[in-house]
């Protein structure tokens, strides 16, 4: 397997945010984490990407422990994240934001040009806005920029934290179509998403988190038909 968490515990002070999380992500998959606010989804991604320390447990990537590896070194190894809230640099242009995503890897100008071409093919709107400051973009465009910046690092695993948050329904579908395309191009994806219907329709496998614990895991299509999952996260409706 490409990425594995084993019995991971994480604390914020005295509060235990993750209470023994174990999950796997295989090469080529889209795996999604669903659950309510405060379930531990974002904490899981932050822990993987080196932004939160473990209390105990193990995280392995490509059969090597990555516990304690600094976040920027994890980007170099192939783990890149588009964070919740987008986290773009508002005073920098779209091009400059994308260049920041490529800082951790080499390859020269030719490779950088290839990566710009890939991002602009996925997100034509960003090419149109290339010289604009990131802070002048719409919410949807900023989300495209956050994902594009993460892709500039040429990740093996892309961590996406709430990519559809705050977006209009039409843009939500567009973002998820692009996530599917990125995966089909060969990038493994671990997706945190409150739009459970869209996430489960796009993912291969899924984990359900509640108050820091995994309470269900299965093929995504199986969870789409699970009565308790439908009642809690889908409103009985898997449309959209």
Alpha carbon gyration radius: 17 Å
- Strand arrangement in the largest pleated sheet: 6-7-8-3-9-10
Please give the alpha-carbon distance between the first and last residues. 31 Å
Overall CATH architecture of the domain at 1-78 and 157-167 and 189-240: 3-Layer(aba) Sandwich
Number of β-strand runs: 10
* CATH fold category name of the domain at 1-78 and 157-167 and 189-240: Rossmann fold
SS-based class = alpha/beta
Taken in chain order, the helices and strands follow as EEEHEEHEHHHHEHEHEEHH
Low-pLDDT stretches: 236-240
CATH class of the domain at 1-78 and 157-167 and 189-240: Alpha Beta
Task: Characterize the main sheet.
Answer: 6 strands, mixed
Count of helical regions = 10
Assembly state = single chain
What percentage of the residues does DSSP assign to strands (E)? 25-35%
Task: Estimate the global geometry from the Cα principal axes.
Answer: globular
Helix content: 25-40%
Question: How would you describe this protein?
Answer:
With 240 residues, the chain is of the alpha/beta class. The protein has a domain at 1-78 and 157-167 and 189-240: 3-Layer(aba) Sandwich (Rossmann fold). The protein is 38% helix and 25% strand. The strands form two sheets. A six-stranded mixed sheet has the order 6-7-8-3-9-10, sandwiched between helices. Strand 4 and strand 5 (64-65) form a beta hairpin. Helix 3 runs parallel beside helix 6 (139-151). The longest helix has 16 residues, at 169-184. The model is unreliable at 236-240 (pLDDT under 50).
